[in-house]
Amino acid sequence: MSMAKEDLAKDNEKRSCELATDFTHLQLQPKHKIMTLKFALNQAFVRGKNPIDEHPLNYDEYNPFNICAASNVPHLSEHRHSSPKQWKLSEYVS
Questions:
Q1: In total, how many domains does the chain have?
Q2: Rounded to the nearest 10 degrees, how much is the dihedral formed by the CA atoms of 81, 57, 60, 46?
Q3: How far is C-alpha 76 from the geometric centre of its chain's CA atoms?
Q4: Which of 30, 39, 61, 66 could form a disulfide with 87 if both were Cys (CB 3.0 to 4.6 A apart)?
Q5: pLDDT bucket at 81, cuts 50 / 70 / 90
Q6: Is residue 48 located within the same domain as residue 19?
Q7: Phi, psi dihedral angles at 74 (to 5 degrees)
Q8: Which residues have a Cβ under 8 Å from the Cβ of 32 and sit 6 or more positions away?
Q9: 3-state DSSP call for residue 43?
Q10: Model-level pTM?
Q11: Which residue range is the domain that position 12 belongs to?
């Protein structure tokens, strides 16, 4: 997920910002958590220079979600402790 975020940093600003915010919700060690929060703050600051919301983010910090391992796209989880097999989007399940 981190590598995908770095690859998109300059090409797709909206997706890079979404990945940065999603990455802050993962359970990481404290120093890695700090690094992800700093990156997300930097992304938000860059987007904040232009206050026009051209691209609304697909992000809601109040709803629990799981992140699909294949596409790095968050999807809302109905059950907080659902099985990891259910965390893949249907288009990636074979």
A1: 2
A2: 110
A3: 13
A4: 66
A5: very low
A6: yes
A7: -75, 145
A8: none
A9: helix
A10: 0.53
A11: 1-55
What is the per-residue burial (b if ≥16 Cβ within 10 Å, else e) of 11-34? Answer: eebebbbbbbbbbeeeeeeeeeee
Do 5 and 36 share a domain, yes or no?
yes
Query: Which is more confidently placed, 70 or 10?
Result: 70
Terminal CA-CA length for the chain = 21
Q: Map tokens 């997300």 to a residue.
A: 40
Instruction: Return the bridge partners of 76, or none.
Output: 65
Specify whether 69 is located in the same domain as 51. Answer: no
- 23 & 65 share domain: no
pLDDT tens, position by position, 52-70: 666 677 676 776 777 776 7
Q: Are residues 49 and 64 in the same domain?
A: no
Indicate the SS3 state at residue 74. strand
